[in-house]
């Protein structure tokens, strides 16, 4: 692969990118979330725009400031993200799911602030599974639409990513080792392996999320135009 700049290679294409991490409410003042900054998704959205695409960025509570030069839809929870992704995917050419989606949410959301009680030293939260957005997308995907997922793993990176590319019926997965400090969650740099549905693999060096995003968009536009 060469990752040369490919001009307006995505001109006229609609690209939907999700970024950030979902926030699942527990009561009016508390929620469950994760460390996703939104940086990787923002970089992908900017790279797609630079390649000439019409970009919709779906942002879920990013820690970083949302870019102002993009069409942005803000969401809070995994359920809202699912609804918005489905709406936006309908007429899209390409989806990149960089958002960190909460796998579980509190089973009930209290309408008043939950109080601690004098005699309870411990507390147990009941959680229920969130929908798998990429699995739902794969069931409505039409021929020609291209879907990319991310796999954040602390162990067995490639084996786990291979399982996810199959179970979610993806065209491409970006496998990301999040066990090392300085790359991945909330960092400026990343190191990933691009894994294709046909088994091809391309590993990047540690480099900026912008560089990785440009490579990703270059790969997607090559695959897309074949
Ligand atoms: N994802 C999704 N819907 C979910 C959870 C994850 O669409 N409910 C997407 C993420 O945006 C990412 C990909 O699936 O692109 C992989 O996410 P990851 O958390 O690595 O995988 P999971 O399938 O949730 O499996 P696990 O966390 O158990 O490893
Ligand atoms: Ca998960």
UniProtKB/TrEMBL annotation:
GO biological process: coenzyme A biosynthetic process; pantothenate catabolic process
Residues the record lists as binding CTP: 103, 113, 131-134, 150, 164, 168
Keywords on record: Decarboxylase, Flavoprotein, FMN, Ligase, Lyase, Magnesium, Metal-binding, Multifunctional enzyme
Domain DNA/pantothenate metabolism flavoprotein C-terminal positions: 10-221
Entry function: Catalyzes two steps in the biosynthesis of coenzyme A. In the first step cysteine is conjugated to 4'-phosphopantothenate to form 4-phosphopantothenoylcysteine, in the latter compound is decarboxylated to form 4'-phosphopantotheine.
Stated family: In the C-terminal section; belongs to the PPC synthetase family. In the N-terminal section; belongs to the HFCD (homo-oligomeric flavin containing Cys decarboxylase) superfamily.
UniProt name for this protein: Coenzyme A biosynthesis bifunctional protein CoaBC
Organism, as annotated: Lentilactobacillus kefiri
């Amino acid at each position: 692969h060469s990752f040369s700049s490919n001009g307006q290679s995505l001109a006229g294409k609609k690209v939907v990118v999700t970024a950030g991490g979902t926030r699942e409410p527990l009561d009016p003042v508390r929620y469950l979330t994760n460390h996703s900054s939104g940086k990787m998704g923002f970089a992908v959205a900017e790279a797609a725009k630079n390649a000439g695409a019409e970009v919709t960025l779906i942002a879920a509570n990013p820690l970083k400031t949302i870019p102002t030069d993009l069409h942005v839809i803000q969401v809070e929870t995994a359920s809202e993200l699912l609804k918005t992704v489905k709406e936006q995917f309908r007429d899209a050419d390409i989806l990149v799911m960089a958002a960190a989606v909460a796998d579980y949410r509190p089973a009930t959301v209290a309408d008043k602030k939950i109080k601690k009680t004098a005699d309870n030293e411990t507390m147990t939260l009941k959680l229920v599974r969130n929908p798998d957005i990429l699995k739902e997308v794969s069931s409505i995907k039409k021929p020609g639409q291209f879907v990319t997922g991310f796999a954040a793993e602390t162990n067995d990176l490639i084996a786990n990513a291979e399982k996810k590319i199959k179970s979610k019926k993806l065209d491409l997965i970006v496998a990301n080792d999040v066990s090392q400090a300085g790359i991945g969650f909330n960092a400026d740099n990343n190191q990933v392996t691009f894994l294709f549905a046909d088994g091809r693999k391309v590993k990047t060096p540690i480099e900026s999320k912008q560089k990785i995003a440009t490579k990703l968009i270059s790969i997607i536009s090559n695959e897309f135009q074949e």
